[in-house]
Write a structure and sequence with these properties.
Layout: H1 2-7, H2 16-28, H3 35-51, H4 59-71, H5 80-88, E1 89-92, E2 95-98
Antiparallel strand pairs: 1-2
Helix pairs in contact: 2-3, 4-5
Length: about 110
């Protein structure tokens, strides 16, 4: 992931805001119905959270998801609560798990 963060920014490490802007640009170019792209978007957001130490269900996490949701104009496609659930929770055998509850992640 470090190589990605450097490569996208002309040899400098991407800042938190630059990475978030990349995620927003990626989301803008993503059709929500495309499962592969949706999973890639979630992976980027999850990476951003891990890299910058942002835990699920915190104000910063919620605020950031809302910014992505609003900037990408997702309201006609999916309601915010469902978007938040998809982006924050990991799905394993149909069971949703809060990222903060996964052992050895914190």
């Amino acid at each position: 992931m470090d190589a990605f963060l450097v490569q996208r920014n002309g040899g400098k490490l991407m800042s938190k805001e630059e990475f978030l802007n990349y995620i927003i640009d990626f989301a803008t170019d993503t059709e929500w119905e495309d499962l592969k792209r949706r999973e890639q978007l979630r992976a980027l957001f999850t990476s951003w959270c891990f890299i910058y130490g942002i835990m699920a269900d915190t104000k910063e996490c919620d605020d950031t998801l809302y910014i992505i949701y609003e900037k990408v104009l997702m309201e006609p496609v999916i309601d915010y609560d469902e978007f938040e659930t998809v982006m924050i929770n990991l799905s394993s055998n149909g069971m949703l798990v809060d990222i903060a509850e996964v052992p050895n992640i914190q």
